[in-house]
Amino acid sequence: MSTNPNKALWEKGDFTRIAESMRESGEALVATLDITDGLEVLDLGCGDGTTAVPAAKLGAAVLGVDIASNLVDAGNTRAQSLGLTNLRFQRGDASDLNELDDDSFDLVISMFGAMFAPKPFDVAKEMVRVTRSGGRIVMGNWIPGDPTLVAQILKISSSYSPPPPEGFVSPMTWGVEDNVIERFAGAGVPEEKIAFERDTYTFRCPGAPAELLARFRTYYGPTMNAFEAAAANGREADLQAELEALFNAQNASQSGDATSIPATFLRVTVAV
Ligand SMILES: C[S@@+](CC[C@H](N)C(=O)[O-])C[C@H]1O[C@@H](n2cnc3c(N)ncnc32)[C@H](O)[C@@H]1O
Predict the structure, then answer these.
(1) Which of 143, 112, 132, 128 is nearest to 44 (CA)?
(2) What is the pLDDT of residues 138-147, one digit of tens each?
Protein backbone atom coordinates (compact mmCIF):
# COMPACT_ATOMS: atom_id res chain seq x y z
CA MET A 1 0.00 0.00 0.00
CA SER A 2 1.44 3.35 -1.06
CA THR A 3 1.85 6.11 1.51
CA ASN A 4 2.16 8.83 -1.12
CA PRO A 5 -1.44 10.01 -1.79
CA ASN A 6 -0.49 11.44 -5.18
CA LYS A 7 0.96 8.08 -6.28
CA ALA A 8 -1.96 6.18 -4.73
CA LEU A 9 -4.50 8.32 -6.64
CA TRP A 10 -3.06 7.35 -10.03
CA GLU A 11 -2.28 3.73 -9.17
CA LYS A 12 -5.83 3.26 -7.86
CA GLY A 13 -7.37 3.00 -11.30
CA ASP A 14 -5.95 2.24 -14.72
CA PHE A 15 -5.36 5.40 -16.69
CA THR A 16 -4.51 3.34 -19.81
CA ARG A 17 -8.27 2.87 -20.28
CA ILE A 18 -8.79 6.65 -20.50
CA ALA A 19 -5.61 7.19 -22.53
CA GLU A 20 -7.01 4.92 -25.26
CA SER A 21 -9.49 7.70 -26.02
CA MET A 22 -6.72 10.36 -26.23
CA ARG A 23 -4.30 8.74 -28.70
CA GLU A 24 -5.24 10.77 -31.80
CA SER A 25 -4.89 14.08 -29.96
CA GLY A 26 -1.59 12.96 -28.45
CA GLU A 27 -0.23 12.24 -31.92
CA ALA A 28 -1.55 15.52 -33.29
CA LEU A 29 0.04 17.47 -30.44
CA VAL A 30 3.42 15.78 -30.93
CA ALA A 31 3.26 16.51 -34.67
CA THR A 32 3.40 20.24 -33.81
CA LEU A 33 6.58 19.97 -31.71
CA ASP A 34 9.21 19.96 -34.49
CA ILE A 35 10.67 16.67 -33.33
CA THR A 36 13.83 15.70 -35.16
CA ASP A 37 15.90 12.52 -35.12
CA GLY A 38 17.82 12.09 -31.89
CA LEU A 39 16.15 15.00 -30.04
CA GLU A 40 16.32 14.17 -26.33
CA VAL A 41 12.82 14.30 -24.87
CA LEU A 42 11.48 13.88 -21.35
CA ASP A 43 7.75 13.16 -21.06
CA LEU A 44 6.78 13.94 -17.49
CA GLY A 45 3.62 12.41 -16.03
CA CYS A 46 3.66 10.40 -19.26
CA GLY A 47 1.07 7.76 -18.37
CA ASP A 48 1.43 4.84 -20.78
CA GLY A 49 2.91 7.03 -23.51
CA THR A 50 0.15 8.91 -25.33
CA THR A 51 2.73 11.55 -26.32
CA ALA A 52 5.95 9.60 -25.59
CA VAL A 53 5.16 6.91 -28.19
CA PRO A 54 4.52 9.28 -31.12
CA ALA A 55 7.61 11.34 -30.14
CA ALA A 56 9.72 8.16 -30.27
CA LYS A 57 8.12 7.18 -33.59
CA LEU A 58 9.39 10.50 -34.98
CA GLY A 59 12.94 9.51 -33.99
CA ALA A 60 13.39 11.28 -30.64
CA ALA A 61 15.22 9.57 -27.76
CA VAL A 62 12.42 9.57 -25.21
CA LEU A 63 12.33 8.98 -21.48
CA GLY A 64 8.87 8.77 -19.93
CA VAL A 65 8.69 9.45 -16.20
CA ASP A 66 5.56 8.81 -14.17
CA ILE A 67 4.75 8.42 -10.48
CA ALA A 68 2.48 5.40 -11.05
CA SER A 69 4.27 2.03 -11.32
CA ASN A 70 1.38 0.43 -13.24
CA LEU A 71 1.59 3.11 -15.93
CA VAL A 72 5.40 2.86 -16.17
CA ASP A 73 4.98 -0.90 -16.71
CA ALA A 74 2.23 -0.34 -19.30
CA GLY A 75 4.46 2.18 -21.13
CA ASN A 76 7.43 -0.19 -21.24
CA THR A 77 5.16 -2.96 -22.54
CA ARG A 78 3.90 -0.67 -25.33
CA ALA A 79 7.46 0.42 -26.23
CA GLN A 80 8.54 -3.21 -26.42
CA SER A 81 5.61 -4.39 -28.48
CA LEU A 82 6.13 -1.50 -30.90
CA GLY A 83 9.87 -2.28 -31.13
CA LEU A 84 10.77 1.26 -30.03
CA THR A 85 14.27 0.88 -28.58
CA ASN A 86 14.57 4.70 -28.33
CA LEU A 87 11.78 4.86 -25.72
CA ARG A 88 11.84 3.83 -22.09
CA PHE A 89 9.77 4.56 -19.02
CA GLN A 90 10.82 4.85 -15.39
CA ARG A 91 9.20 5.84 -12.13
CA GLY A 92 9.77 9.32 -10.78
CA ASP A 93 8.11 12.31 -9.15
CA ALA A 94 7.81 15.59 -11.05
CA SER A 95 8.32 17.45 -7.74
CA ASP A 96 11.74 15.86 -7.27
CA LEU A 97 13.55 14.43 -10.28
CA ASN A 98 16.72 13.65 -8.33
CA GLU A 99 17.54 10.69 -10.60
CA LEU A 100 17.88 13.02 -13.61
CA ASP A 101 20.93 15.23 -14.28
CA ASP A 102 20.82 18.97 -14.98
CA ASP A 103 20.59 20.03 -18.65
CA SER A 104 19.68 16.55 -19.94
CA PHE A 105 16.82 17.22 -22.39
CA ASP A 106 16.09 19.37 -25.45
CA LEU A 107 12.34 19.12 -24.87
CA VAL A 108 10.29 18.42 -21.77
CA ILE A 109 6.64 17.56 -22.49
CA SER A 110 4.01 17.30 -19.79
CA MET A 111 0.46 16.84 -21.01
CA PHE A 112 -1.88 16.92 -18.00
CA GLY A 113 0.89 15.23 -16.01
CA ALA A 114 3.10 17.59 -13.97
CA MET A 115 0.00 19.67 -13.17
CA PHE A 116 -1.08 16.84 -10.83
CA ALA A 117 2.17 16.79 -8.81
CA PRO A 118 2.26 18.52 -5.44
CA LYS A 119 4.63 21.48 -4.80
CA PRO A 120 4.16 23.36 -8.11
CA PHE A 121 7.14 25.67 -7.53
CA ASP A 122 9.40 22.62 -7.17
CA VAL A 123 7.87 21.12 -10.32
CA ALA A 124 8.70 24.27 -12.34
CA LYS A 125 12.27 24.26 -10.94
CA GLU A 126 12.78 20.61 -11.78
CA MET A 127 11.46 20.98 -15.34
CA VAL A 128 13.78 23.96 -15.93
CA ARG A 129 16.76 22.25 -14.27
CA VAL A 130 16.67 19.17 -16.52
CA THR A 131 16.13 21.21 -19.73
CA ARG A 132 19.21 22.34 -21.67
CA SER A 133 19.71 26.01 -22.41
CA GLY A 134 18.06 26.59 -25.79
CA GLY A 135 15.54 23.82 -25.06
CA ARG A 136 11.78 23.96 -24.52
CA ILE A 137 9.14 22.92 -22.04
CA VAL A 138 5.63 22.25 -23.35
CA MET A 139 2.84 21.73 -20.83
CA GLY A 140 -0.86 21.04 -21.30
CA ASN A 141 -2.96 22.09 -18.31
CA TRP A 142 -6.71 21.92 -17.75
CA ILE A 143 -8.28 25.31 -17.02
CA PRO A 144 -10.33 26.02 -13.88
CA GLY A 145 -13.88 27.13 -14.67
CA ASP A 146 -13.58 26.05 -18.30
CA PRO A 147 -16.94 24.70 -19.54
CA THR A 148 -15.48 21.69 -21.44
CA LEU A 149 -15.16 18.07 -20.37
CA VAL A 150 -12.20 17.53 -18.06
CA ALA A 151 -12.41 20.80 -16.13
CA GLN A 152 -16.09 20.01 -15.53
CA ILE A 153 -15.44 16.37 -14.51
CA LEU A 154 -12.89 17.57 -11.96
CA LYS A 155 -15.21 20.35 -10.73
CA ILE A 156 -18.22 18.05 -10.36
CA SER A 157 -16.05 15.32 -8.77
CA SER A 158 -14.64 17.72 -6.20
CA SER A 159 -18.12 18.91 -5.25
CA TYR A 160 -18.93 15.34 -4.10
CA SER A 161 -15.57 14.78 -2.37
CA PRO A 162 -14.45 15.80 1.13
CA PRO A 163 -12.44 19.04 1.29
CA PRO A 164 -8.75 18.51 0.48
CA PRO A 165 -6.19 18.58 3.31
CA GLU A 166 -4.93 21.96 4.47
CA GLY A 167 -2.19 23.36 2.27
CA PHE A 168 -3.30 21.36 -0.78
CA VAL A 169 -2.73 23.33 -3.99
CA SER A 170 -5.29 22.49 -6.65
CA PRO A 171 -3.76 21.05 -9.87
CA MET A 172 -6.14 23.35 -11.75
CA THR A 173 -4.09 26.38 -10.67
CA TRP A 174 -1.64 25.33 -13.44
CA GLY A 175 -4.37 26.41 -15.88
CA VAL A 176 -4.10 30.06 -14.73
CA GLU A 177 -1.51 32.09 -16.65
CA ASP A 178 -0.46 34.25 -13.68
CA ASN A 179 0.31 31.16 -11.61
CA VAL A 180 2.36 29.65 -14.42
CA ILE A 181 4.34 32.88 -14.80
CA GLU A 182 4.96 33.06 -11.04
CA ARG A 183 6.10 29.42 -10.84
CA PHE A 184 8.54 29.71 -13.74
CA ALA A 185 9.77 33.07 -12.39
CA GLY A 186 10.65 31.13 -9.23
CA ALA A 187 12.74 28.85 -11.47
CA GLY A 188 14.53 31.85 -13.04
CA VAL A 189 12.53 32.07 -16.29
CA PRO A 190 11.26 35.55 -17.21
CA GLU A 191 7.70 36.08 -18.37
CA GLU A 192 8.67 36.96 -21.97
CA LYS A 193 9.97 33.43 -22.45
CA ILE A 194 6.54 31.92 -21.79
CA ALA A 195 3.87 31.63 -24.47
CA PHE A 196 0.24 30.67 -23.87
CA GLU A 197 -2.44 29.42 -26.20
CA ARG A 198 -5.78 27.63 -25.93
CA ASP A 199 -5.67 24.23 -27.55
CA THR A 200 -7.98 21.22 -27.77
CA TYR A 201 -7.74 17.50 -26.99
CA THR A 202 -10.55 15.34 -28.29
CA PHE A 203 -11.64 12.25 -26.36
CA ARG A 204 -12.82 9.62 -28.81
CA CYS A 205 -14.29 6.20 -28.24
CA PRO A 206 -16.41 3.81 -30.31
CA GLY A 207 -19.35 3.57 -27.87
CA ALA A 208 -21.94 6.05 -26.62
CA PRO A 209 -20.88 8.81 -24.16
CA ALA A 210 -22.15 6.60 -21.30
CA GLU A 211 -19.37 4.14 -22.13
CA LEU A 212 -16.68 6.79 -21.87
CA LEU A 213 -18.22 7.89 -18.56
CA ALA A 214 -18.15 4.27 -17.37
CA ARG A 215 -14.42 4.20 -18.08
CA PHE A 216 -13.89 7.35 -15.99
CA ARG A 217 -16.03 5.90 -13.19
CA THR A 218 -14.14 2.60 -13.17
CA TYR A 219 -10.57 3.63 -14.02
CA TYR A 220 -9.89 7.36 -13.41
CA GLY A 221 -8.64 7.93 -9.85
CA PRO A 222 -10.27 11.35 -9.23
CA THR A 223 -13.68 10.12 -10.47
CA MET A 224 -13.36 6.81 -8.58
CA ASN A 225 -12.74 8.76 -5.38
CA ALA A 226 -15.68 11.04 -6.04
CA PHE A 227 -18.01 8.03 -6.52
CA GLU A 228 -16.73 6.50 -3.27
CA ALA A 229 -17.37 9.74 -1.39
CA ALA A 230 -20.78 10.14 -3.04
CA ALA A 231 -21.74 6.54 -2.14
CA ALA A 232 -20.84 7.19 1.50
CA ASN A 233 -23.41 10.03 1.46
CA GLY A 234 -26.05 8.18 -0.58
CA ARG A 235 -25.43 10.54 -3.53
CA GLU A 236 -23.97 8.11 -6.09
CA ALA A 237 -26.99 8.38 -8.42
CA ASP A 238 -26.83 12.21 -8.33
CA LEU A 239 -23.17 12.18 -9.33
CA GLN A 240 -23.85 9.67 -12.10
CA ALA A 241 -26.74 11.78 -13.45
CA GLU A 242 -24.71 15.00 -13.35
CA LEU A 243 -21.80 13.39 -15.21
CA GLU A 244 -24.10 11.67 -17.72
CA ALA A 245 -25.68 15.03 -18.57
CA LEU A 246 -22.21 16.53 -18.98
CA PHE A 247 -20.89 13.76 -21.27
CA ASN A 248 -24.05 13.76 -23.42
CA ALA A 249 -24.10 17.54 -23.75
CA GLN A 250 -20.42 17.67 -24.75
CA ASN A 251 -20.55 14.87 -27.32
CA ALA A 252 -19.92 16.32 -30.79
CA SER A 253 -20.38 13.04 -32.65
CA GLN A 254 -23.29 12.89 -35.08
CA SER A 255 -23.72 9.18 -34.40
CA GLY A 256 -25.52 8.11 -31.22
CA ASP A 257 -23.13 5.24 -30.61
CA ALA A 258 -19.82 7.05 -31.03
CA THR A 259 -18.21 9.58 -28.76
CA SER A 260 -16.06 12.55 -29.70
CA ILE A 261 -15.68 15.17 -26.99
CA PRO A 262 -13.35 18.15 -27.45
CA ALA A 263 -11.79 19.59 -24.30
CA THR A 264 -9.97 22.90 -24.05
CA PHE A 265 -6.62 23.24 -22.29
CA LEU A 266 -3.96 25.86 -21.70
CA ARG A 267 -0.88 25.09 -23.76
CA VAL A 268 2.25 26.55 -22.17
CA THR A 269 5.54 26.79 -24.07
CA VAL A 270 8.62 27.87 -22.15
CA ALA A 271 11.89 28.74 -23.86
CA VAL A 272 14.71 27.79 -21.52
C1 LIG B 1 -4.20 12.68 -16.63
S2 LIG B 1 -2.86 11.56 -16.65
C3 LIG B 1 -2.01 12.03 -18.16
C4 LIG B 1 -1.07 10.97 -18.69
C5 LIG B 1 -0.40 11.27 -20.05
N6 LIG B 1 0.41 12.46 -20.01
C7 LIG B 1 -1.40 11.33 -21.15
O8 LIG B 1 -1.60 12.42 -21.73
O9 LIG B 1 -2.00 10.29 -21.48
C10 LIG B 1 -1.84 12.19 -15.35
C11 LIG B 1 -0.54 11.46 -15.20
O12 LIG B 1 0.32 12.17 -14.32
C13 LIG B 1 0.96 11.24 -13.47
N14 LIG B 1 1.40 11.93 -12.25
C15 LIG B 1 0.62 12.44 -11.26
N16 LIG B 1 1.40 12.99 -10.31
C17 LIG B 1 2.68 12.85 -10.72
C18 LIG B 1 3.94 13.20 -10.16
N19 LIG B 1 4.05 13.79 -8.95
N20 LIG B 1 5.07 12.90 -10.84
C21 LIG B 1 5.01 12.24 -12.04
N22 LIG B 1 3.84 11.87 -12.60
C23 LIG B 1 2.70 12.17 -11.97
C24 LIG B 1 -0.11 10.20 -13.24
O25 LIG B 1 0.39 8.98 -12.74
C26 LIG B 1 -0.72 10.08 -14.62
O27 LIG B 1 -0.05 9.14 -15.43
Answers:
(1) 112
(2) 999 999 999 9
